[in-house]
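Late entry, S-adenosylmethionine complex.
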Amino acid sequence: MELTNPAVVRALLEKYGLQPKKGFGQNFLVNPSIPAHIAAYSRSHAPADRPAGVLEIGPGIGALTACLAEEYDRVAAVEIDRGLLPLLEETLADCGNAAVVNADFMKLDLPSFLDEHFGDLLSEGGTLSVCANLPYYITSPVMMKLIESFPFSRPLPFSSMVFMVQLEVARRLAAQAGSADYGAITASVALRCTVEKFTDVSPGNFLPPPKVSSAVIGLIPHGGVREIDPMAPSGDTELELFSARVEELIALGFGQRRKTLLNALQPKVPKDVTAAALEACGMRADIRGEKLSAADFCRLAHAMEKTGAES
Ligand code: SAM
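Prediction complete; structure with ligand written out below:
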């Protein structure tokens, strides 16, 4: 079945009495080369010689799911819209290695879900990836859930997380510190992943076409805080506490973008402590959060520990 043919998409939706739901961000891919490329790019980050599973968020009518099922040994797809389940049963009838679960991804207990669907594959030395054409309204929460569901003291358990996102968000994720696009999510993601921007996708590739352009990006987990911070604590408990502090500094530092760090951190960190830490790091006293990379936030957190008084 040509799941990216607009006439097929319309006929399937009509057959099951459905319409694309705006509230669930339903814009279905109607260019066959895009889901095929996303699936191949995603699979290229997982070792070829080990069993590989992939978690998909929001399969829609199954266009990307079918491509993932060709590339991967196993697919588990989470779809919030119960109405799509009978349709997906039909479109994925030939994909015996793909399971669809009706759930809101944001409400899933992620580690238990992964254990249930991929536990045996992982215990045989298999690998896991994440892939999704994400509804724009939950892009950042989905990313932060994927990242924050796992301890900082271990690398994330994914070979890659590949997403179709709003172009603006892709630019933000791939931005360098100090640039106009750089934001809190850039720094938070950089604590755990490197970002690869893959390709831009115009609205005409979706049914219905969204108002904004999109892009495919890959978040490739690295060794975590221990990789980007040579002074990271060696103990797991200490690293968890330290990382939580860095996350808090990032959140505060970007909370009020126009404020200097000295003022933005003030609700939690006395000005004299921030001033001493900035000086110890060789940073200007009037620097703003958006100038600091994830590694700079780590350096600042260490310097604050030394000056001894972070709240
Ligand atoms: N993967 C399909 C494609 O590429 O054509 C559909 C992508 S569409 C942009 C987003 C999909 O995510 C929709 O099927 C929507 O129902 C689903 N979705 C939205 N919010 C969700 C959530 N919280 N949990 C799981 N699925 C969700």
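The mean pLDDT is 94. Will revisit in the morning.
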